């Protein structure tokens, strides 16, 4: 007879006993259910939930969920590949108890990210969280590197009373305006309180550029924890907004015109406790490997956009001269380049120096996005890649000859172009493995086909509430 003492391989040693203790503790705090969360290939957060009393069972044997979600599109249609899709098979969702968090804005609930494990106890090759963990381990094993990461979160706040499917901004003050902060003061204060209660160290939260748009920034963590926290913070933003009669969209473009919502990624590579993006003898204090890591990312950006900007709506946002970083260019504190070197404030550069990668939005699966960015950086380190001449100002102003000298070219202007670049990039495909790489290609092609013939306004509407 199988008991909780004989779990299927997939959980962590000691998880059953720990989950049993946590279950009692959570019940005593009024927590009735656990949200088991992951992000699919299309970037949509998917969940299953269990009663708190079943947490130990989930830790022992996982919770079933079909692998078909690896090939789900944002509108819940699915595509198939040679190895994924269709009604067959099952996976188990194993909660990471180290990340279990009581949800301050959803009374009665706790939350945990999951690893997706096959029924025989092996890692599911389509699990983005496993892929990111594997890539982080590879950085340490091959190059002695650790990586710290943070994802910015931008969202648009709309009125829940708006006509079905439409977006009506909840505040109409100017960009970065004090009026917006005042108008949504209570909601923002509750958001900060919820994040603090959940152990999320918020650096900033402020009005952004577009109508009804806000941004929240957090400190850097190891990449898996950073991706987990991005998912948790979005869950929290939604819940707090709902309690205030508001609705939020993380879509790259809630409308066809104007500045969209980004999800810029900040990365820094370290070795033996030293930040490789400062204190070196290369340009702006980069070390040789710090430069190579940046050059690896810069060189693979056309293919990376299939992962970091995975929605047809992403390409409504990725437009020149809107600080979206749509050219293969880099620069010191240059917000129009795709890779921005952030040196940090004098006196704190060892802690703060990092790379900001701008052509990223929150339609991306954060585990896949971080994993592929790190894989590209590692390829640069392995090959000793060098950065081209840096760009200042807006790259769109470069004449053709100067742009060619610096390797500055336009990133894909459509999802179809991005997928074509991704299919031709062996480094990224090999890093992901055949199952995940095929899922990425198939899902992106399915998304592109689904909006063929639609004008920009209809594309924006199709993805407005699909994040």
Automatic annotation (TrEMBL):
Ranges where the GS beta-grasp domain occurs: 29-121
Keywords: ATP-binding, Ligase, Nucleotide-binding
Region forming the signal peptide: none
Gene3D superfamilies (UniProt xref): Glutamine synthetase, N-terminal domain (3.10.20.70), Glutamine synthetase/guanido kinase, catalytic domain (3.30.590.10)
InterPro entries documented for this protein: Gln_synt_N, Gln_synt_N_sf, Gln_synth/guanido_kin_cat_dom, Gln_synth_cat_dom
SMART domains: Gln-synt_C (SM01230)
Pfam families: Gln-synt_C (PF00120)
Domain of life according to the entry: Bacteria
Keyword Nucleotide-binding: yes
Domain (GS catalytic): residue spans on this chain: 128-467
Family assignment from sequence similarity: Belongs to the glutamine synthetase family.
Record protein name field: Glutamine synthetase
């Amino acid at each position: 007879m199988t008991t909780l003492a004989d779990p299927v391989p997939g959980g962590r040693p000691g998880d059953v006993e720990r989950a049993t203790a946590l279950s009692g503790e959570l019940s005593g705090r009024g927590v009735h259910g656990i949200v088991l969360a992951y992000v699919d290939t299309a970037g949509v957060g998917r969940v299953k939930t269990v009663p708190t009393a079943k947490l130990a069972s989930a830790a022992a044997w996982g919770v079933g969920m079909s692998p078909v979600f690896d090939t789900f599109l944002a509108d819940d249609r699915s595509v198939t590949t040679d190895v994924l899709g269709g009604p067959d098979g099952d996976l188990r969702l194993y909660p990471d108890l180290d990340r279990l968090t009581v949800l301050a804005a959803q009374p009665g609930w706790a939350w945990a990210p999951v690893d997706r494990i096959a029924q025989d106890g092996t890692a599911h090759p389509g699990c983005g969280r496993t892929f990111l963990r594997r890539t982080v381990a590879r950085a340490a094993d091959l190059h002695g590197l650790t990586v710290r990461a943070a994802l910015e979160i931008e969202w648009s706040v709309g009125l829940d009373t708006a006509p079905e499917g439409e977006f009506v901004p909840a505040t109409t003050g100017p960009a970065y305006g004090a009026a917006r902060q005042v108008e949504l003061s209570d909601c923002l204060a509750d958001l900060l309180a919820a994040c603090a209660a959940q152990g999320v160290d918020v650096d900033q939260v402020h009005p952004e550029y577009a109508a009804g748009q806000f941004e929240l920034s957090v400190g850097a963590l190891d990449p898996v924890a950073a991706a987990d926290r991005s998912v948790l913070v979005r869950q929290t933003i939604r819940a707090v907004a709902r309690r205030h009669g508001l609705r939020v969209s993380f879509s790259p473009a809630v409308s066809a015109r104007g500045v969209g919502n980004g999800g810029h990624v900040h990365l820094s590579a370290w070795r033996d406790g030293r930040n490789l993006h400062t204190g070196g003898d290369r340009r702006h204090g980069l070390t040789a490997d710090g430069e190579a890591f940046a050059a690896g990312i810069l060189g693979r950006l056309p293919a990376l956009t299939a992962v970091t900007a995975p929605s047809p709506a992403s390409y409504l946002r990725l437009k020149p001269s809107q600080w979206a970083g749509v050219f293969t260019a880099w620069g010191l504190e240059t917000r129009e380049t795709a890779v921005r070197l952030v040196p940090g404030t004098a006196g704190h550069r060892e802690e703060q120096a990092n790379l900001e990668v701008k052509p990223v939005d929150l339609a991306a699966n954060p585990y896949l996005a971080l994993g592929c960015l790190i894989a590209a950086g590692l390829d640069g380190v392995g090959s000793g890649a060098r950065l081209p001449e840096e760009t200042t100002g807006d790259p769109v102003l470069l004449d053709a000859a100067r742009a060619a000298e610096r390797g500055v070219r336009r990133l894909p202007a459509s999802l179809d172009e991005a997928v074509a670049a991704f299919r031709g990039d062996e480094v990224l495909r090999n890093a992901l493995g055949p199952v995940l790489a095929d899922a990425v290609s198939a899902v992106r092609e399915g998304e592109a086909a689904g909006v063929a013939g639609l004008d920009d306004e209809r594309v924006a509407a199709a993805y407005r509430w699909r994040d």
